[in-house]
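Practice set, problem 2.
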Amino acid sequence: MTEPGTTTIDSTAAKSAEQEATAYSWYVLGILVLVYILNFVDRQILSILANDIKKDLALTDADLGFLYGTAFAVFYSLFGIPLGRLADSWHRVRLMSVGLALWSVMTAVSGLSRTGGQLTAARIGVGVGEATASPAAYSLISDYFPQKLRATALAIYSSGLFLGGGLSLLVGGLIVERWNAAYPAGGPFGLVGWQAAFMAVGLPGVALAVLVATLREPVRGAIDGMPTPSLERPFKGFLAELVTVIPPLTLLGALRRGPAALVANLAVAGLITIAVFALTAVLGRSTQQQWIFIGVGVYAVYSWASALRARDLPTFRLIWGTPAFLCTTLGYGMVAFTSYATSYWAAPYAERTFSIAKAELGWFIGAPGALAGFLGVILGGRVADALYRRTSSGRVMVTLFGLLAPILPLVLAFRADSFTAFVAMLFIAQTMSSSALGGAAATSQALVLPRMRGTATATFFLATTLVGLALGPFMAGYVSATNNDDLASGVLSTLAAAPIGLALLVFAIRTVPGALASLEQRAKAAGEQI
């Protein structure tokens, strides 16, 4: 019997690690793609609804960036940590089906919002529900596909991001226009078009959750020759993780580790509070909710990382103690910083600048955006796998390409004089930026042991959410709001992340080979029983 947290290598299984994926593996991947499509339909539909919500709820562009990004992202990333732990120790299929039902219901509840505060609360609920999806999905995919196909499989899964984003514009635009045409003064219960759209895309997820529940749970780590049993009491770890990440329970978690840990925790909380007040003073009182949410997120991550170090040193060392892992994830976070801002603000910008109807935006921005993202992430995943066979840092090279290549077409898009030129340049930029995801995701999975994959995925998504999603769209909205609603300048301001991403990813390219080669050695040195 293997002790919990122990990784066992089966030599026979190890020899079969290069086996081909089965037909059922591809079926599971197809279902997971559907889940991710719905995930991003529910998340991204706020884009096509932004201008109507801004008018009806009397919001600014900065408020819209906060609603789309920060209000969702902080709780998505915050709850992704304990849910990632649960994905490492419990039935991942059940976890995903419950989460899918939750975020679908909360999306429908968004349609009942009458104030910005109510919509913020609903977006928080969507974020908590969606936090179950990718930790479980990444872990499942890594157990259904061998190493040589993993970046491709993860890229196919990630295509749901772009397909869902494009579909949200198509569906959302049609629903809003037809609802408002049928009910000019408001429909049943006084609902207007944007509220009906939230409900229409939210409720089908409950049915999909039932289908997800029928999937088979694979043996964790078996495909890599490192079968790892699930823990006998998985929710004990989940609840323990909640105490380490959800304020103010984090104070109790710190106290359990001793007085010194509590003092350090309080000191960090104090420094973050000072930073929140400073940012609010510099950027204006209207940004206070943004910095409070970001401060809570940063404090929660610190609390969790400190607890992880005390509780599970091998996992901490392979994630937070590995520069290659941190630079890869933060480097991709810089890609997400600009790409999230672009994908969210493209439709509102075109609607304002070129006076394009919502239904047409769905066809001319949503459909090409879905195709661009699908092509980019699939081709990027294939190239990443091909380069990985030549050099172990090949996947990160593709991520670097996805950071730099979109810069010029993005500038041309948001400086274009015609809608046609805007759409063409936007298509090129989105194709290139989406190529980065598969390689970055696969690298994050490769740099940890099988039992750590859910936690590694949650950490990976900290970069894409707390860095990319929580800051990118808000920055674009804030710059726009302080420059007479100049969305073009707002979106292009997010390119300031590119030099930072360049430095991070160049360092990752240099350090990933050594980190991969020393993976088991470093795990053993940290106390892992292999």
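Problem 2, part (b): a different protein.
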Amino acid sequence: MAVRWTFVVVGALAAAACAGPDGPPKEASDAAQAFARAWSAGKASTAVDSRTSKVAKATLAEVTTELVIRRTTVRTRGELTCLDGDQADQLNDGRRVCRQGIAVSHDLAGLGTWRYASTAEVREDSEGRWKVWWAPATFHPQLTDATKLDRTRELPERAPILDQQGEPLTQELPVVRVGVEPGKVRPEVTYSRLASVLGIDPGKLRSRAEAAPPTQFVDVITLREGAYGEIRSAVEGIPGVVTHKDTMSLAPTSTFARAVLGVVGPATAESLKDAGPLAMESDEIGTSGLQKAYQSQLAGTPGGSIDVVDRKSGTKVREVFRLAARPGKPLKTTLDTSLQEAAENAIESQEKPTALVAVRASTGEILATANGPGVTSYNRAFVGKYPPGSTFKVVSVAALLEGGLQVDDRVSCPAETNIGGKRFKNAYNTSLPDGPLLTAFARSCNTALVQRAETLEGSALAAMADRFGIGETWKLGLPAYSGSVPEPQDLVDRAASMIGQGRVLLSPLGMAMVAATVDSGQPRTPVLLPDVAPGQKAGEVLPADLGDDLRTLMRAVVETGSAKALDLPGAQPVFAKTGTAEYGSEDPPRTHAWMIGFRGDIAFAVVIEDGGGGGRDAGPVALRFLQESRFVQ
């Protein structure tokens, strides 16, 4: 049988198929395939000639660390070709040498995929066995004994979160990173003094510092430049404390819409789970709110390069990989900066957990949302689940009006009443003489409504709640709770639901949307990110006469009832409903304080956990908000 020869140019050398009736030896091809599989499995040094395994292991350890390689995939490409006798004799003492093209793909942490072509040289040993002969060029064709690979990584500037006008709510602002250098701390002094100044856990900090190298910067806290200035003198003299100046994507103040906008901080194991495939432990990433939920969009895509450099001089020889960084994309919200400031100011002096949320009634756009007291990332305005108390009477009275009751119909308001064997009473044990529903609603009479529970069909209240959009699935871009009004189990359950107790639960945002529905007449889903999740109608328009009646009732609350303090001068009147919601098992029960309402096209809700009475305690918060936002409509 005739012998076939194939010639392929490899570098400056001519390569030929090894002699034999069937072309290159199968053993050489098998060795190349085995090497590709072993490298892909992270065991390349086990599939090379034993005389080069030590070099292979060292090279791979070095480049894996330097390039931060997470995973490598290698496959053979093209035909195996063999060198002629003279070339093989020079390289392998006359024994056969073949070359196999390989396609290499590295998953680089924080950068993505680096792909290139290389060559695996397969040599026959004295016993006729074939193995890959490892050299630096096996890893990459530009790598030699005298060179190494260096990686750089560049992060683009984080994109801002915008208000409804397209103005930035977050931007890069100066911060100071406070940390410790473990080798310079005095354990008996450093940790306790830092704890007293910064309020950190000294035990946890000590554990992290003792686990770190002596010269490593161990992060303690990152402070705005102004905040650091206030404690600078107390920190600088503590042994082992180190500070670095930096910038970070921040809102105007530490409390400004914090639970919605979120914060950016050093990556943690938890925050990295949702930060995208290119985030690294060394990055600053979103840890809460929109900064976390839209981390990839805001952060953009890292860029970087890999260079071949001289080992001795560090001089760059050649760039072998380049990836351009792509900036993040801004995220537009519906927040109104002026209204947000008004909301922040309204709750700033609160001592108990408080939330205030304001929406544009005609569109459902969320204009402001503040949570306090102090700095908190818990978004109780969106996700808090509370009995709404008497603020829910807006919905229950709507059901009664649809059932035939009139605003001027006379109702009784005793201090207490018994429904189905359960005693219901008014706040402060007050009573009113028999009079119109308008007066009972304005003065927030519980007994007048629970006595009407038996006049409603079993599903009437839940059906009216559905018409107000309660229980709708919201798509805000952040977790939010729209409320729940279950079908009543019995008459007592129905009576409790009439006054927002029992199993009725809503969030402050949910109650703000109830007020917005009365204002505009059209139930809607709330909107926070107009370009991502636009709002929509959440049902049919309320009948005109029903809307008129509800607005009349809510205006009476302000003119003559429990929210009289909100009767502000001006062309646009305020409409409101107070609420005092019982919770817990204490006797007397503890209460949350509520206030909902609207003025012009702005609807709002306030809740104070364990806050006492709606008019007495939530009222002043709503009043300050309305006073500071009087020019914003």
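Answer key, part (b): The CA atoms of residues 162 and 168 lie 4 Å apart. The radius of gyration is 35 Å.
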